[in-house]
User: What shape does this take?
Amino acid sequence: MQREFHAVAEDAPGGKWRALFQKHWPAYHRWFLKEGDAARPSYLATERALRRHMPELVPLYERLIAAAGGGDAVARFLGLYCPTPYLTGCSQAVWTRDTPRLIRNYDYHPALWDAALLQTRWLGKEVIAMSDCLWGVLDGMNDAGLAVSLSFGGRKVVGEGFGIPLVLRYVLELCDTVGDAVAALERIPVHMAYNVTVLDAKGRYATVLVAPDRPAVSTFRPVATNHQHWVEWSQHARLTGTVEREQLLTAHLADPAETADRFAGRFLEPPLFATQFHRGWGTLYTAEYRPASGEAIYRWPHLSLPERVGAFQEATITIDYAGAGMPPARD
Assistant: This one.
């Protein structure tokens, strides 16, 4: 399967974001209604939840609704309040020696990915982030030097709260430090279990285990895969190898002979790099964030795309998930 991936710069929601919305809205609309219209919260409930928990995002939310052309379904979807459940894989780790780095693999199906890296200044901060649900964040970094990424927490429970990509958008738009991010993650309700790793420009890091049915727990774990305190969904754990991936990353971080570049390269190798798309997901990309320098590098087995806060360049890449990527075309 091939996907065309775009790195896009647009300070405020405009024509480029609108084109992204128009491209993906039909599929997102079907996904949003997958369990029936009545299964999703009303617009009033969605707006009320946003104003209560993330009021700073409300003006941007309203602007995006207008840019998308308005409508009840659009507004409810973009609110990402109690959205349709979804599962991902993912591995992420913080390298703490020499230059701290947050490195992660995002595992999902290529057809269900926005395939867009957005550089924005929606609320004043420059943010570079992998898009999900059109304005949510899978991973990214802001101009304060705060980097963040998510991985599924390996639990079936679904509750009242926001889709985690919108919470990560909030973190990058409003937070400067790991302490700021942890406070937000502990406060904002989420609809499913996720592990969120944050790293800031001073090398401070945390992994916050969030869930809809129990309080968030902030830890100093440098590694997160697809379980939380313990394995609670054994079938998912076996299919994704969550324990094995966690043990592998932990061992390499503890190895005094390991180097930062070698550690980052392991994310492009089995068992971290997955190609089991017939099971519903594989590794779509590897991201490496270096908050102290503002560098972000996106990798595939035979291709890399470097970006930097303050010097972002637009690009287009064709990625063949049966083989290698093609060199980026800089716009």
Remarks:
- The chain has a mean pLDDT of 95.
- The domain at 2-321 is CATH 3.60.60.10 (Penicillin V Acylase; Chain A).
- The radius of gyration is 18 Å.
- The CA atoms of residues 175 and 324 lie 36 Å apart.
